[in-house]
């Protein structure tokens, strides 16, 4: 993956496998963070085609069809909002230029490296956003078209071009920090040279924030400490709903809360915007803009894991590319 000194970003075509169109709606799954436990259990138990059954192994050969030297176009529609991006390969080089914004943990990198070495494939594209706006080319047709379990309309087609696609500007990593870190390490070990990415124009993306579940700390303790500030946070629990107020940059609020809770013997866990909990206290943060995320990353470095939530999320299991 690279952007040279002139800001040129090059995306290469891929050769691999895509879900057989007749089976795609059965193979693919939305992101785990979008599924409640009952949905995941149902899919795992009653749907033999689901990627749940071959997450750590090879699928049956007839589940996928091979494609060669193509770019994939992935389209997601929810509530009338259409988002479209391009799936291809970006070359990993020593002078890689990509802006990260969330912290990664070494133990997770080691687990993902072991996973890559086991399956010898990339199956989940990194979500990468370009800084400059561009037009996603339209395929002649979308062989894969279905509605997933969440009511989202998914379409995927592929296009053949005679040369790589070149864009100007910068690249920002939205989703897949641990996978990107693991692939960089594998590159240093000489085991991988390309990374599978889903490149999305900035106009196609919405940014939200993760919530935090707080345990072993009372509502009164939180209210007493977080009583002043320019940001209003919603706090929910068995008591109903209350407001917290915090001061500072909006993207620093997660770290402020986590530090306060942990220093007082409490526990704190991330929740996606769609998750709920019947225990503890759930704190919801204000949403942010894409520009706020990148400006914060450039100025202050990385945020805690699971701070930002980028939409749309790509369904899992639609594409596989061998490591090389």
Keywords:
five-stranded antiparallel β-sheet, 7 helices, ten-stranded mixed β-sheet, 324 residues, 19 strands, alpha+beta, Conserved hypothetical protein from pyrococcus furiosus pfu- 392566-001, ParB domain, 2 domains
What this model shows, in words?
Helix 3 packs across helix 4. The protein folds into 2 domains: 213 residues, Conserved hypothetical protein from pyrococcus furiosus pfu- 392566-001, ParB domain (Alpha-Beta Complex), CATH 3.90.1530; 74 residues, no CATH class. Strands 2, 3, 4, 5, 6, 7, 8, 10, 11 and 19 form a 10-stranded mixed β-sheet that branches. A 5-stranded antiparallel β-sheet has the order 15-14-17-13-16, covered by helices on one side. It is built from 7 helices and 19 strands. The N terminus is likely disordered. By secondary structure, it is of the alpha+beta class.
The total of beta strands comes to 19
User: At the first level of CATH, what is the class of the largest domain?
Assistant: Alpha Beta
Which of globular, elongated, flat, extended, rod-shaped describes the shape? globular
Can you identify the CATH superfamily of the largest domain?
Answer: Conserved hypothetical protein from pyrococcus furiosus pfu- 392566-001, ParB domain
CATH topology heading of the largest domain: Conserved hypothetical protein from pyrococcus furiosus pfu- 392566-001, ParB domain
Radius of gyration: 21 Å
Quick structural gist:
With 324 residues, the chain is of the alpha+beta class.
